Amino acid sequence: MMIDGLQCGHFDRAAFESLGRAGVAGVVVTCGFWEGAVESLDSLGRWRDLIRENADIAGIATTPSEITGLANEGKLAVILGYQNSNLFEGRIRFVELFAELGVRVVQLTYNNQNELGSSCYEAEDGGLARFGREVILEMNRAGMLVDCSHVGNRTTLDAIEASDKPIAVTHANAQSLFDHKRNKSDDVIRALGETGGVIGCATYRNITGDDYCKTVEAWCGMLARTVEIGGVDTVAIGTDRSHNFTAPDYAWMRQGRWTRGVDYGAASAARPGKAPPPEWFQDVEDMRVIPDGLRAVGFSEEEVDKITHKNWMRLYEATFRKPKIEVN
Amino acid sequence: MMIDGLQCGHFDRAAFESLGRAGVAGVVVTCGFWEGAVESLDSLGRWRDLIRENADIAGIATTPSEITGLANEGKLAVILGYQNSNLFEGRIRFVELFAELGVRVVQLTYNNQNELGSSCYEAEDGGLARFGREVILEMNRAGMLVDCSHVGNRTTLDAIEASDKPIAVTHANAQSLFDHKRNKSDDVIRALGETGGVIGCATYRNITGDDYCKTVEAWCGMLARTVEIGGVDTVAIGTDRSHNFTAPDYAWMRQGRWTRGVDYGAASAARPGKAPPPEWFQDVEDMRVIPDGLRAVGFSEEEVDKITHKNWMRLYEATFRKPKIEVN
């Protein structure tokens, strides 16, 4: 059993089937990057339709016990997430409304600074802003997991400190292992470890580097070194795998509506388009080799369980809840 | 025990307390008139806060059993409603999302024609439009009650025919008893009766007339004549009472953002502002005289129960549901 802390793109039945064959029991999906409240509701509507159409093989999970329940039926548990906080449109009260609609993971910023804090790509990270602090406490209350994957290191450290609950970096790697703005400092990974947080290690080549993409053992070796930084309770999987992405999707993801220019996100002018997936992870179902890869680099069965799913489940247990928001 | 099919205005603790003293166990409140999706979410956020602040005396009810449960605790059951379908912003998928957020009553149109159908104030009522039919079926599925109080008679008849479930006119009177565009033809009231629908008789002077406002017996006499048209299973209470309304509220309610001119809604140039409440219904708690008024005009105990709450409860039973929309 595996849980993938973040995937994105246009999911379809084939993607759900591939994830099933890969041994993935639960996956956090990306319901939006830049969209405001109305477009985010559109996305939830489309996701509900997609899940209804594939109810024989997938379901939406809003609690760890729903993930387990779906897994026991052999179905993929889809956890609804957003890679930005634009869905809240600056409104603290929208946090509980989107929680009520099943959203469980929200990233404070995507690639740009916003009212909450700073992204990893800004020249200056001024730390968590006033509204960011409010949103984190409201997410704590409403049962949503705070995600800081694209958030700047300083804002991330502030978020860990501000949050009453442990937080996540759902999809990033250690900066000390592969130097990229999108990756996280050892300080961040240690602070996650000290507070019950989790980092999901990515397989996205632009932030993983060619060396760790060559073999599953190399990638699992990267996880072993990440465990040395943050501890075995802190490291999990967050591949950042995308499904059915096309050029307009990359343009939207990177440029949204914020620039008339070109932005490469985690990519570069040298390779602006789709990054080739790791050699060992050409097809989605290839994820099934990860547990054996972890064993090959020396993890025990207990450690393999933590990295593949138990760390995420523990974090979800600590943060997700049905927002039985005392109104009846 | 009474249920009021529609009230509006700015509710506060004093209003909840007054309704308690009036013997009102449940009330459909107006969360919006013209607002789109984002502002409607704002309204839901404010309502949730208001209910949380007054959780000792009120709660949000989304099913008849929750109404009963709150009543048994001596608390007012608030049922969330909108007097317009603008909250959906033309999106069929928003119906189930707002249902999930607890909305249970939505009026197809307010005072103006929209994508769903025609209002009672348009020169020509062309009947239910294509999107109106879709929304009705989606409301049936998602567990929302269709309200046609401000809707034109022809569109209302079409809605009754299109709907798989009985529908409501939550706040209007019989046109044959008081001639006003906002009131409903005998055809509509009979069609409601034949399909299990309900009309909530109003106490709003502009659509009730001075004669029926003089004494509670006169108003209950109007209900007795409405029962002669539609049957005793069809008639209930929908006062249209407003709380803490001020001049800007009337301007918004009538003119919204749709005109630079003046519109009087159900009022008139002769009396553009607040209509004086009925002589017998000066304060909200005066509603408590209604059951005795109904007895005074000859209704049996069983009939009093139907008119004061059982007809609404039967209709809610037939239409409301927790939208356990098969996604997990």
Task: Figure out the total of helices of chain A.
Answer: 13
Rg for CA atoms of chain A: 18 Å
Biggest interface, CB < 8 A: A-B, 33 and 33 residues
Q: Low-confidence segments of chain A, ≥5 residues, pLDDT <50? A: none
What is the end-to-end distance of chain A? 37 Å
CATH architecture of chain A: Alpha-Beta Barrel
The CATH topology of chain A comes to: TIM Barrel
Largest sheet of chain A: 7 strands, parallel
Number of domains of chain A: 1
Structural class of chain A: alpha/beta
Task: Explain this structure.
Chains A, B: It is an enzyme of class 3 (hydrolase). Chains A, B: Its EC number is 3.4.13.-. Chains A, B: One of its GO terms (molecular function) is metallodipeptidase activity. 2 copies of one chain form a homodimer. With 328 residues, chain A is of the alpha/beta class. Chain A has one domain (2-319): Metal-dependent hydrolases (TIM Barrel, Alpha-Beta Barrel), CATH 3.20.20. In chain A, 41% of the residues lie in helices and 14% in strands. In chain A, strands 1, 2, 3, 4, 5, 6 and 10 form a 7-stranded parallel beta sheet that branches. In chain A, strands 7-8-9 form a 3-stranded parallel beta sheet. In chain A, helix 6 packs parallel to helix 7 (186-195). The termini of chain A are far apart. The relative contact order of chain A is 0.15.
